[in-house]
Amino acid sequence: MQFSLSLMLYGGIRPTEVSRLRKDDFDWDGMQVIIRPSVSKTGGGRTVPLRGIHGIRKKDRIIPQGWNRKWKALRRAAGYRGNKWVPDVCRHTFASYHAAFFRNLPELQLEMGHRDASLLMTRYMAPALKKDAAAFWQAAGVRME
Prior knowledge:
The chain is mainly α. The protein has 7 helices and 3 strands; from the N terminus they run H-H-E-E-E-H-H-H-H-H. It has helices spanning 2-11, 15-20, 67-77, 89-102, 105-112, 118-124, 130-139, and strands spanning 26-27, 32-35, 46-49. The relative contact order is 0.17.
């Protein structure tokens, strides 16, 4: 589960997209994952860097069987029931902290698969302090410059 959560939180990949990924979608040498058009919610493909996985053993870098059921159980165990859980909250968190830390909207737009930045700014991003964003990315193993 840790690998799947890292894909959502540090890659902005939607839960439904995570559930559709296959082994051959991962480029381990290039440290990226390909979101094929057939996997993407919107039908557009994209390439996403693999961040936040350095502490996960290679043998555990898999999408578990029954992913959707396990994701629902994890949210329930965390105390979220019904409408309390914001859909794609990990994706929104990713966008907010990516924008605050990297300060590169075109790159964020590509990683999220958006045609233009207006959707990012109006729907996905919340204001985030640079120090909070730095702590978020440091937890993912991203080098601080």
